[in-house]
Write a structure and sequence with these properties.
- With 450 residues, this protein is an alpha+beta fold.
- The protein has eleven helices and 15 strands.
- The strands form three sheets. Strands 4, 5, 6, 7, 10, 11 and 12 form a seven-stranded antiparallel sheet that branches. The chain has a six-stranded mixed sheet with strand order 8-9-3-2-1-13.
Length: 450
């Protein structure tokens, strides 16, 4: 942390002699003021990640707020924000920002979150719209920003930005976040960690003095569902479906049929159909999260912003390949070879592109995935490549010639290959266990706060 900023904080704390008891009086929670705390069992602002109180003033159109927020370790001065929204997520939220300056002083301003396409936060042109400027008070104590301010319950509708400041006559979900400043008085993107961002699970009525609380930051349910469906579809089902098609034809051709088709074919087809179904479901979930709008790449957001575009591309490749797969010619048709080349190439291309898309997905801020999960995706890619190397080496070794993929696709296989049936099954079992373990680790990371 910047030395000048640290000194300013120390001098500010000494000269103002603020304490949590002075800035936030918690004795009247649920009696003469409303309170919301995170986590829900913390009893003091210095023990809480977030602590918010609200209370009517002597003026009927005013609500006084006291806010405390724990911030992360940054080299620049931090900020803390409190927002109200119609849903427990960022888009369309009306926000009050408490920003720490290099001098240690705390300023208060109004801002809002865009509805689309990237939910960016912008300060209002009139940064004090809806605020009572004489009510501002703030300090930094024990890695927490303490910020007191008074907000108007109803905003003057004649102001051109009044639609960006929500009236407090209705109940809303509350949002908490902290982060570093990008420059003096300007907010940088909020932290993604175990301390936030946070959204309440219920709407809060600021006309009632309730005493409520919530657990630590919850990952967005839409993002969790999207990640879970995609991970299971592309790491587990797609991997097994492609493995059986490439390497288990001979083994499972000898074990009868299911509904008139070889076992390997039914496993492959069923796996890929489920991959398509889960991919479609996951896509609909994330579109619902984005208010049914497609998020285009944003150069300023970095390479991870192409994740949606790559994801749609993977889905299109999968759909086209499934259609082609169901139009395959007869096994003795002269066009069978061209079909196989096309089907195999697009299947492999979609799987490779899916791995790249997943890697960019775990890097996205909104996924709130731990940094180490990127290496789990890399491990999956290496595990997939290792399985291909082992199985292809086995073919070469026991066939005593390079593998004839066209012959394999037409079920014209040497007797020598059948001698390694047990080995093929063993490799598939180990491979399957590996991808299931990797998928479970990623699914847990996507759904559990870490």
């Amino acid at each position: 942390m910047d030395l000048g900023f640290c000194v300013a904080l120390i001098l500010t704390g000494i000269s103002l002699a603020f304490s949590s008891e002075r800035l936030i009086d918690i004795d009247e929670c649920g009696v003469s003021k409303g309170c919301y705390r995170v986590p829900n069992k913390c009893s003091d602002p210095l023990d809480c990640v977030y602590f918010l109180t609200w209370q009517n003033t002597s003026t009927s159109n005013e609500v006084h707020f006291e806010y405390a927020a724990l911030f992360g370790n940054h080299s620049k001065p931090p900020w803390a924000a409190f927002g109200v929204a119609d849903a427990p997520r960022m888009p369309g939220a009306s926000v009050v920002d408490c920003i720490v300056w290099q001098t240690g002083n705390v300023s208060v301003q109004m801002s809002y979150n865009m509805q689309s396409p990237h939910h960016d936060n912008h300060p209002l042109n009139n940064t004090y719209l809806g605020l009572v400027r004489s009510s501002f008070e703030g300090a930094v104590i024990d890695s927490r920003i303490f910020c007191n301010f008074t907000r108007l319950r109803v905003i003057n509708s004649s102001d051109p930005e009044s639609d960006r400041v929500k009236n407090l006559t209705l109940p809303y979900y509350i949002l908490f976040a902290t982060g570093p400043t990008a420059a003096a008085g300007e907010k940088d993107i909020h932290d993604f960690s175990d301390i936030g961002p946070y959204a309440s699970s219920v709407k809060i009525d600021f006309s009632k003095y309730s005493d409520l609380g919530g657990d630590k930051s919850l990952k967005n349910p839409y993002i969790r569902a999207h990640a879970t469906l995609m991970i299971f579809a592309w790491i587990v089902l797609a991997s097994l479906g492609m493995f059986t098609s490439r390497y288990m034809k001979n083994q499972w051709n000898e074990n009868g049929t299911v509904c008139g088709k070889p076992v390997w074919f039914q496993v492959h087809r069923l796996s890929m159909v489920f991959v398509l179904a889960l991919t479609l479901a996951a896509t609909l979930v994330v579109f619902a999260y984005n208010d049914w709008k497609f998020i285009t790449p944003d150069v300023q957001s970095g390479v991870t912003s192409i994740h949606p575009t790559l994801g749609v591309t993977v889905g299109v490749l999968l759909l086209v390949n499934l259609v082609v797969g169901n139009l395959r010619p007869d096994i003795y048709s002269p066009y069978r070879i061209y079909f196989w080349v096309f089907h195999a190439f697009f299947g492999l291309a979609s799987h490779i592109l899916a791995a790249v898309t997943m890697f960019l997905g775990v890097l996205q801020h909104k996924a709130q995935m731990p940094d180490w999960t990127r290496w789990i995706v890399v491990a999956f890619a290496f595990w997939r490549i290792l399985a291909d190397v082992v199985m292809t080496s086995t073919r070469i070794r026991y066939s005593e010639r390079p593998p004839d993929y066209f012959a394999i696709a037409n079920n014209e296989v040497d007797d020598a290959v059948t001698k390694v049936a047990a080995w093929r099954c063993a490799v598939m079992i180990v491979y399957s266990i590996g991808i299931i373990v990797l998928a479970l680790v990623l699914i847990v990371a996507a759904n559990v706060d870490m």
